[in-house]
Fold:
Amino acid sequence: MFKVTIDNITVEVEPGTTILQAARQIGGEVVPPAMCYYSKLKGSGGKCRTCLVKVAQGSAADPRPMPKLVASCSTPVQDGMVVQNITSPEVIEARKAIVEFLLINHPLDCPVCDQAGECDLQDLSFKHGMEETRYVEEKREFDIVDIGDKIKLHMNRCILCYRCVYTADQIAGKRVHGVMYRGDTAEISTLINESINSNFSGNVIDVCPVGALTDKTFRFKSRVWFLNPMNAHRNCPSCSGKVTAWMFGNEIYRVTARKDTYGEVEEFICDECRFEKKNKSDWTIEGPRHIERNSVISANHYEKSKKPSIIKPLEEKTEAPE
Ligand code: SF4
Ligand code: FES
Structure:
């Protein structure tokens, strides 16, 4: 096992583990944000640079620091490595610059974007972004296109993280879209606007960190923070049938895969579960889903509002002061 220290916390990990995965084993604030890396998708990572960290000591054998900040999602740990994330002002400054860079071409669509409230870029900007933009040049603009009858592509919002491309390759079986062209003309496209029609194609919506790929069956129906996410399951012949049903009263507004604390789906789901099963009777509703992610969808959540707000639990009252 390799010993690695991240923000003064030491953890033992298997050789081959990346710095980001090691940080996730520690958890909490130490974990760098990730906009393109996705643990369930092979080859993902190394595109967005949001996960940059400082390697203050390369290894026990060679304690020299690495000369530049490194992408934690694609840099494997060495034994005795010392890493700084939130304890490095250089990293915080660089992250601010990366957010600014990602926002260069990203429109201020949040008030009308379906992803608002669960958008990784929105959360990242909230935490690390600047109040004002310095960008005065024109942004790239694309027409909004349908890829298939259930998915809308807003290329203007895409940050070219490649997650949807890997998902289509590795989960949906057949990829009919990808990143076309290069540099500032790069875009996600299906070439001649072909549709994505595998039974697992809807997963591209869940992996998209921004609102570039949205669910046409849910578009403009509600802001996500008005809905109650419920764990639900059904007997599905194609996937596990374990989903999050986003409900308003007794109505199911949308169905997504269940996401973990890092916003990654736990199990990919099929399009039938996602798009076709919108009746409460289609599902066994298990109960409220606890949203662990630090986002507006976990704030003021109805799960919490059930607790009495004035009367504190007994053990909290009797706790000895530290
Ligand atoms: S459409 Fe979304 S998932 Fe696909 S590359 Fe763009 S940002 Fe990433
Ligand atoms: S998450 Fe590491 S480069 Fe994007």
In short: The chain has three domains: 2-99, 110-215, 224-292. The mean pLDDT is 88. The chain is about 20% helix and 20% strand.
